[in-house]
Design a protein that fits this description.
By secondary structure, this protein is mainly alpha-helical. It is built from 19 helices and 8 strands. A 3-stranded antiparallel beta sheet has the order 1-2-3. A 3-stranded mixed beta sheet has the order 5-4-6, with no helix packed on it. Helix 4 runs antiparallel to helix 5 and helix 6 packs parallel to helix 11.
Length: about 425
């Protein structure tokens, strides 16, 4: 909810003393559960990054509870009361969050994760064995398939740990995140985490005046919504957008892996990430060295990269054909839960394919409650679907191929609109 920090002070009812001094002129106030908190000095140290600035002067209760436990506030004293407009949708999803908390949906099943880790080790062992023990190139290329599966599943582990869903210890989870992301997967975990947290907080949002956009919904060669058009100014970018419906699938598959590796590491300066990435290149290079010729090394690596590129498709189809929002549109920002519902598509799959999607086929429940571990997504989605129905919100879901088709069709429509755009 966008509010005026000064006009919403209930000074007469406030139990707080000297709140004007406490809040330092209201420069860095954020609203949570009917109270204002002064976070001006905390902003540079926020573990989730600068995205917290987007909620200064607003009621951030929904997004706060999505990412934090209530105990985060135990060392902070509120500065003043605030007037809160009761929103039935916000209340319904907040009540559902409380139900999930009480029913243990946010608790980690370590036995489940142990089994997943053992499967991941088995996949890598299979890849290494097929490369080292067999001379037939057919078996070795099957090793490339196994390597692609290892990268894909490592990417899902990166997602779990960087969301602090596993050990619940922020530093430990980030270290494991670096291991699975940068060392195993080959993508900077810190880079991904920063962009991904912004993506969760302001999914499909843009602000032209500040050149701001959801960083995981903006690529230099695709414009999946009219609100993104003003960000594309060069002749090359505009040319690529006109062909985006043709290039989408080939680009994801052919250069998706190489592109994200370059994007994540080109500006990386943290020693931990640089060392982990160097070790990633070392172990992959060692594996390739067992192949007899440079040509076979190249074919092996490209085959694994192309197959892993499917991961990029399945992550994009959950948002690319959905609504985009202006950051200053209060009809959207007043209801964070609603903005998540209208920005996500769930992919309908049988339970035995959840491994392929890393649980992110249940994308809406993950966006609404990102602290929840993925082994609870399927059963939690039934409750989310019910609340959507009760609040008259469209719960969008379809099959994988239909979601891909919708994405490509939307890109074609946007390409046509872009050609007609007078800019």
């Amino acid at each position: 909810m966008v509010v005026d920090a000064n006009s919403n002070l209930s000074k007469g009812d406030s139990p707080y003393n000297d709140h004007e001094t406490c809040c330092d002129g209201n420069k860095g106030w954020i609203g949570i559960d009917g109270h204002w908190y002064d976070i001006e000095k905390f902003i540079p140290h926020h573990p989730g990054g600068d995205i917290i600035r987007e909620f200064v002067g607003r009621d951030a209760s929904a997004v706060f509870h999505a990412f934090h436990k209530q105990s985060v506030l135990k060392y902070r004293s509120p500065c003043a009361k605030m007037n809160v407009n009761v929103n039935p949708t916000e209340q319904a999803f907040a009540k559902l969050r409380e139900h999930f908390e009480q029913a243990g949906y946010f608790e980690t099943d370590y036995y489940w994760y142990l089994k997943k880790v053992l499967v991941l080790v088995g996949i890598l062992f299979t890849s290494v064995t097929l490369v080292i023990k067999f001379e037939c190139m057919l078996f070795r290329y099957l090793g490339a398939v196994a390597l692609a599966a290892f990268w894909q599943q490592s990417g899902f582990f990166m997602h779990d740990f960087e969301h602090n869903q596993v050990t619940r210890n922020r530093h430990m989870d980030r270290n494991f995140g670096t291991f699975f992301a940068t060392f195993c997967f080959g993508v900077s975990g810190d880079w991904w985490r920063s962009d991904h947290f912004t993506h969760h907080a302001v999914t499909n949002y843009v602000c032209h005046e500040r050149n701001f956009y959801d960083p995981q919904q903006r690529e230099i060669i695709w414009a999946q919504n009219e609100k993104l058009f003003p960000f594309f100014t060069s002749a090359l970018e505009r040319f690529c957008i006109k062909l985006q419906h043709i290039s989408f699938l080939p680009v994801c598959i052919v250069i998706g892996r190489i592109g994200i590796m370059i994007d994540s590491m080109k500006d990386e300066r943290k020693p931990s990430q640089l060392i982990a990435f160097a070790l990633h290149l070392a172990w992959v290079g060692t594996l390739l060295s067992f192949l007899p010729t440079p040509k076979e090394m190249l074919i092996f690596y490209l085959l694994a990269s192309f197959l892993q590129g499917i991961l990029h498709i399945q992550l994009l189809i959950s948002h690319y054909s959905k609504e985009f929002h202006y950051l200053n549109d209060t009809s959207v920002t007043d209801n964070w839960y609603r903005s998540q519902v209208v920005s996500n598509i769930d992919i309908i799959t049988p339970w035995w394919l959840d491994w392929f999607h890393g649980g992110l086929n249940f994308h809406l429940v993950h966006h609404l409650y990102p602290r929840m571990p993925r082994h609870n997504f399927r059963k939690a989605t039934d409750h989310v679907r019910r609340v959507c129905r009760e609040q008259n919100l469209h719960y969008d879901s379809c099959g994988w191929f239909e979601a891909v088709s919708r994405t490509v069709k939307n890109l074609r429509v946007m390409a046509t609109h872009f050609k007609l755009d007078p800019r």
